[in-house]
Amino acid sequence: MDPARKRRVRLVVALSAALVLSVALIYQSFSASSEARTPSQLLASADAGRSYQLTGKVVDGSIKKVGTTYQFRVRDRNGKASVPIRYTGSVADTFRGGREVIVTVKREGSTFVGEKDSLVTKCPSKFQEQSKTQST
Question: Residues with Cβ < 8 Å from 37, sequence gap 6 or more?
C-alpha cells in the first residue's frame, strides 16, 4: 500500500474516532444536567423516588436539629409556597433562616429528603457586592 494513502486512512480513522468521542461527551454532559426547581414546581410535579435539585430560601424559624438530622422548610424566592425538608449531612456556617440554598432531594410522601452532603448555602454578601458595583 502506498505510504501517502496509509497516512490518509489513519487520519480519517483518527478524526472519525475523535468526532464520535466528542459527540458522546457532549451528549453525556447535557443528559446528566438537571434544572433546579422551586418549591412550587416540586409540589406540582415531583415524582416519588426521583432526585431533584431544589432552590429557594430557608423559612425563618423553621430549622430544627434532631440528632444529626436537620428539619426545615424551603420556600420560593418571591412566593409563599414551601416544602418540608429532612436533611442529614454537613451544613455551612452560613446556613440559617432567610438564606438561599440548593439541595438535592427525593420526595417521600409529603416530605422531601435531602441527599447527604448535597446542601449548598448561597452567600448573599457576594451577590449584593456585585450588584452594587454593577449599578454604579
Answer: 46, 52, 53, 54, 55
